[in-house]
Amino acid sequence: MKKILIINGHPNKDSFNFGIAKAYKDGTLQSGAEVQEIVIADLDFNPNLQFGYQKRMELEPDLINAWEKIKWADHLMWIHPVWWGGLPAITKGFIDRLFLPGLAFKYRENSVWWDKLLKGKTAHIITTLDQPGFYYRFFFGRPSVNQLRKSVLEFCGIQPVKVTYIGIIKTSDGKQRQKWLKKIKLLGVKQK
C-alpha cells in the first residue's frame, strides 16, 4: 500500500488550495492508499533560518513531527499558490528549516558533491496561478517550480517530480473549479 503525504503550503484555510488538498486526499483514500497531511499554516515554528548553516537551530516539535511524516511517505504531494513568481513565505521557511544537511542531504567531506538522503521517494507539485500555466512556464521560467523541484526535491534525491498547473484562479467560476477538483481527485485515485 502506497504511503502518501499531502503538504499544503497555502497560509489561508479558506483558499482553493485547501479544496485541492481535500479532493486529492479523497481520491487517495478511495484508492486504498495510506494518507497523512502537513498543513504548514498549522505548524508552530520559526520560519527564519536565522544562522544559515553556520549554527543549527533546534527543530520545534511540529517540525520534528513533519520530518517523521516525510520519512514515512513514499510520495509527497505539494500544493501551493504562486505569489510574485515564488512560494509563499511560510512554505519557503518550512523548507529552509527542515530540508537540512544531515536530514535531507549530506555534503561529502572535501568535495563539492553531496549524498541525496531522500532517494526512493516521488513527488508531485500542484501549483495555483493567476495566469495560464503555459505563460508562467514559458514567459516567467516557472521560478517556484524550479526552486521546489530542482533545488529542493531532486537535490535531495526525490524523483520523479511531476507538476500540475491550475489557473487562472482569479477569473475562474464554480463550474471551472469543480472541473479542476475532479481532475485532482482522479490524480489521487491513480496515486500520482
Automatic annotation (TrEMBL):
Keyword tRNA processing: no
InterPro entries: Flavodoxin_fold, Flavoprotein-like_sf, NAD(P)H_dehydrogenase_qn
Keyword terms: Oxidoreductase
Oxidoreductase in keyword set: yes
UniProt domain Flavodoxin-like fold: residue ranges: 2-179
Cellular component aspect of the GO annotation: cytosol
TM region(s), chain numbering: none
Entry-linked SUPFAM superfamilies: Flavoproteins (SSF52218)
MF terms in GO: NAD(P)H dehydrogenase (quinone) activity
Domain of life: Bacteria
Annotated family: Belongs to the NAD(P)H dehydrogenase (quinone) family.
Protein name per its UniProtKB record: Putative NADPH-quinone reductase (Modulator of drug activity B)
